Amino acid sequence: MSKKDSKENFFQNVYEVVQLIPRGRVTSYGAIASYLGAKGSARMVGWALIASHPMTKIPAHRVVNRVGMLTGKQHFDHPGAMQERLEQEGVRVENDQVADFEKLFWDPSKELL
DNA sequence: GCGATGACTTCTT
DNA sequence: GAAGAAGCCATCG
C-alpha cells in the first residue's frame, strides 16, 4: 500500500456505495463515479464491479447504466440473473430495462448526503 | 511498449 | 431532437 492506495480506495468506495444501496433501488455508474470524484470515468465503475463481483458479494444487479438498461447482465453467472434478482427485490424490469428507473434511482450524493 | 476493448457519459454536428 | 464522435482509465493481446 503506497501508490496503489488511491486506486484501491476507488474500488473500495464503489463496493461501499453499492452495498449501501437500499433494496429495490438502483443507481447508475455515472452517479457513483461522480460521487467518488471520477466524474467522466464511469467505465471504471463498471470495471470495479467486474472485479468486485467475484471478489465481494455486492448487489451489482442494482447498478445499471444511465438509461436503466441491464448492460452488464451478461457478466453475471447466468444472463437473466440480474433481471430476476431485481424483480425479486421488487424492481420491475422490462426488456432488460428497469421500469420507473427515475423513481428507483438512488443517488449517493443525494440520498446518502 | 503499443493497440484494442470495455458493466459508460457527455459534447458536438 | 437524433445520431455520431470523443473522452476517460484500466486491463488484455
UniProtKB/TrEMBL annotation:
GO MF assignments: methyltransferase activity
UniProt keyword terms in alphabetical order: DNA damage, Methyltransferase, Transferase
InterPro entries per UniProt: ATL_DNA_repair, MethylDNA_cys_MeTrfase_DNA-bd, MethylDNA_cys_MeTrfase_DNAb, WH-like_DNA-bd_sf
Domain of life: Bacteria
Residue ranges of domain Methylated-DNA-[protein]-cysteine S-methyltransferase DNA binding in the record: 9-91
GO process terms (BP): DNA repair; methylation
UniProt cross-references to PANTHER family, sorted A to Z: 6-O-METHYLGUANINE DNA METHYLTRANSFERASE, ALKYLTRANSFERASE-LIKE PROTEIN 1
Protein name: Methylated-DNA-protein-cysteine methyltransferase-like protein
Protein species of origin: Pontibacter mucosus
Lineage: Bacteria, Pseudomonadati, Bacteroidota, Cytophagia, Cytophagales
